[in-house]
């Protein structure tokens, strides 16, 4: 029976890296939801929902208004638990990110193998096919759904860091600029980001369940690596484009598909991510290593201080904070007025 079952299992191939052909399944599922198959989707600026700068800007203004306004309102109310909703939110984002990533791999692997990296990132026939445009758009729409991350934070009265709020808004804007800028290199940062999100949202899901995860700092490290790889591709694609157009005497590999404003937006936003995440890592984990470790013979008070240390939350690398001291003086004295608790929510 086992041998017969294995014989019926489709084996992975270059065109079907997961054994089964995912796109037809996705195509039919998309049709059930939207009323037409994904293979008929067209991104048309000014026609497709969320395809204008006005719509994008409106949603970004609404996001920051709700977030910072909500934080002020919540000062007058106790923190909400919302643990079940938080678990559902993170589990669904884990699954959605995984599905998108698998669909991207199925589309890109044959192109990369048969035509190479340059063709895949600099030619519209390689990195701007109709199936990829569908996936780019769904990833873009998902960035607005991820705004709920911040809503959970202020409803639970968690700290709203600059990195968290900036990252969410800037990522939605980044995806918009790349869509209307027709950048074939878009799949590089998107696929790596989806991989990070599978890990990150799974971590949040498990944390909300009360499971202690030891590798939370490696999520931030993974994101830093992500931005380094992203910028390597983006800097290369931008360099060869601008060199071929404005400095043809400079060594280059020719024009790379995409609009100039999209290239500049990608360079600016992702470079800022890299700098901010490195700064966050140093401030959080290097500080923990220096001040969070008790010195020899410091006794019980130092151990309490370690338990009360709280790590700030950020958008791409939110980390569940530890418990705060019971009163305003506890952090400085190393003593609390009640039992020490630890939050497991991001």
Walkthrough of the structure:
This protein has helices spanning 2-8, 22-34, 53-74, 83-122, 124-127, 130-145, 148-155, 162-181, 187-208, 216-246, 260-291, 300-308, 330-333. The protein is an all-alpha fold and 346 residues long. The longest helix has 40 residues, at 83-122. Helix 3 (53-74) packs parallel to helix 7, helix 6 (130-145) runs antiparallel to helix 8 and helix 9 packs antiparallel against helix 10. The protein has 13 helices and no strands.
Which percent bin holds the helix content?
55-70%
Low-confidence stretches: 294-346
Estimated share of beta-strand residues: under 5%
End-to-end separation in angstroms reads: 46 Å
Overall pLDDT: 85
Radius of gyration: 23 Å
Main beta-sheet strand count, sense and barrel state: none
Helix/strand/pairing category:
mainly alpha
What's the assembly state of these chains? single chain
Give the strand tally: 0
Shape: globular
What is the helix/strand order? Answer: HHHHHHHHHHHHH
What's the number of domains? 1
